[in-house]
Amino acid sequence: MRIMAVDYGDARTGIAVSDLTATICGEALTIEEHDMRNAARRIALTAAEKNVSRIVLGLPLNMDGTEGPRAEKSREFAKLLTDESGLEVLFRDERKTTVDAHRILSENGKRMKKHKKNVDAVAAALILESYLREPKR
Description:
Elements: E1 2-7, E2 12-18, E3 25-32, H1 36-49, E4 52-59, H2 69-85, E5 89-93, H3 97-107, H4 112-133
Parallel strand pairs: 1-4, 4-5
Antiparallel strand pairs: 1-2, 2-3
Helix pairs in contact: 1-2, 3-4
């Protein structure tokens, strides 16, 4: 059973897919898409190609844990993802994942200019890893 994590963004969306045993992140990539419905379709197609059984979507909460406009947009995107893929979409707190992704890329020698291409994929991988570590899932 593969699990997919998604770090949704207005222009770029990070996607991470687990290995077959849903133990670790198997691959991560970024898609560029400005239209929310098109992004949901592309992710649904990728989920079908990779035999994904569940999608975990990052929920961008405010630092105090409340939901703002970005969280609302993610909830709207989750509905589109469910409609397009037929899969259950779970939410995962994504606070600080982008900051952590930038730090990881910097520590591994990536220049800030090149972060833009990879940061969303790394953030999706962090969301996935966080979900996979959860004992109750």
